Amino acid sequence: MTARERQRTMADDLTLKQKLFAESYIGPAAGNATKAARLAGYQGDATTLQSTGSALLKKPAIAARVEQRIQEAMMSADECMAEISAIARQPLCDTVKVKRNGRDEVIDAHLDPMAKLRALELVGNYHGIFKNRSDLPAEEVVRVLEYINPNKPMQLEATITREEEKAKDR
Asked: Is the entire prediction scored with pTM above 0.70?
C-alpha cells in the first residue's frame, strides 16, 4: 500500500465533525485550528476550542486528511508556469482595471499593465534573464519607469531616489 493510499484510508475513517474540521482548517479558517474547531461545530470557549483544535491536528487521520486536501488543491509547478505564461502572453490592451460603484456601474476603467509586467518578471526570473537592478545604469531605470508610468514624474523621481539609496546601502 502506498503512502497516498494509507492517507486516503485513514482520512476515510473520520467522523463528520472531524471532516468538517479538516475542511474548515484548510478553507475558511485559513490554518487557524481554533477557528476551524468552532466552524466544525465543536463547543467551548476560546481556550477549549484551541485545545480541541490542537488535539485534532495531532490525530494521524486528521493530519492525513489535511495533507491529502492540500495536495489535491495545490497547483503543480507546470500549472503555475502555464498560468503565469498565459498572463504574460495576454495582449496589453486586455489588461483593463475596472472600478464599479454600489450599483455595479463602471466609474473608471484604464489600462493596468502591472499584472502582465509581474507575470513577465516571474517568467524572466525563472529563466534567469534579468540582471540585478543594482547592475542597471540609472538611465535604463528611468526609461523603464517612464514607460510604465509617464504621467507621474514625481513618483519616478521618488522611485529612482529610493533605488539609488538602496544601492548605496549595499
From this structure: no
